[in-house]
Automatic annotation (TrEMBL):
A Pfam family annotated for this UniProt entry: Ham1p_like
Assembly behavior: Homodimer.
Regions that span the bilayer: none
Organismal lineage: Bacteria, Pseudomonadati, Pseudomonadota, Gammaproteobacteria, Moraxellales
Cofactor comment text: Binds 1 Mg(2+) ion per subunit.
Keywords: Hydrolase, Magnesium, Metal-binding, Nucleotide metabolism, Nucleotide-binding
GO terms (BP aspect): nucleotide metabolic process; purine nucleoside triphosphate catabolic process
Protein name: dITP/XTP pyrophosphatase
Family to which the UniProt record says this protein belongs: Belongs to the HAM1 NTPase family.
Origin: domain of life: Bacteria
EC number of the protein: 3.6.1.66
Needed co-factor(s): Mg(2+)
């Protein structure tokens, strides 16, 4: 998860130029690995699991709060700068649920199958009442970077990806709610896109590009 480009070599966060990625989510880590490999950084990105850092307690009330909590947690334990992601699916028809509870919407953290089943069930009354009307959804990703655990000025970047919520799963790639996230302009679900295509337009891909744009040259 490292790159060797030198055009950003002036970013000397630590003598070894190492940043911690505050996530233990395998799906997110795979996407971040590809995205950071494409980025113009002279930095080694270390998943927090390699440093035996457990997940932080996410007790914020927003994506921004939770991203900062996770970044500070990883930075405090590692002594390194840290980047954290907090992301999820917001459905306006459900008051923006699952929102920050996306990973544990059905009560069990990280059970994609149960989360998708609950989302389909929760949307069924709305579909019945508004037949043939697409249900909008929004994937959200907020990235927070702290240079040290008590950094008073975290770098914040947000990506939003708009689509529609399907009644049944479509595609066998991706993770989370990807099989239910339909992109009308592509006539495809997020789960049916290639990794490269998904990264080029996804909420996470957008957020990383906006984060990189804020880093000092």
């Amino acid at each position: 998860m490292s790159t060797t480009n030198t055009s950003r070599s002036s970013i000397q966060s630590t003598p070894d130029n190492q940043w911690v990625l505050a996530s233990n989510n395998k799906g997110k880590l795979a996407e971040f690995k590809r995205l950071f490999a494409e980025a113009d950084l002279d930095v080694t990105i270390i998943p927090q699991g390699q440093l035996d850092i457990e997940d932080a307690i996410e007790d914020g009330l927003s994506f921004v709060e939770n991203a900062i909590i996770k970044a500070r947690h990883a930075s405090r334990i590692s002594g390194l700068p840290a980047i954290a992601d907090d992301s999820g699916l917001c459905v306006p028809a459900l008051g923006n649920a699952p929102g920050i509870y996306s990973a544990r919407y059905a009560g069990e953290h990280g059970n994609d199958g149960k989360n998708n089943i609950k989302l389909i069930a929760d949307l069924q009354p709305i579909r019945t009442e508004h037949a043939n009307k697409p249900i909008k959804g929004l994937f959200v990703c907020v990235l927070a970077m702290v240079r040290h655990a008590d950094d008073p000025l975290p770098i914040i970047a947000q990506g939003l990806w708009q689509g529609e919520i399907l009644e049944t799963a479509h595609g066998d790639g991706g993770f989370g709610y990807d099989p239910l996230f339909w992109l009308p302009e592509l006539q495809a679900s997020a789960a049916s896109l290639s990794a490269a295509d998904k990264n080029s337009i996804s909420h996470r891909g957008q957020a990383i590009q906006r984060l990189l744009a804020q880093l000092p040259l």
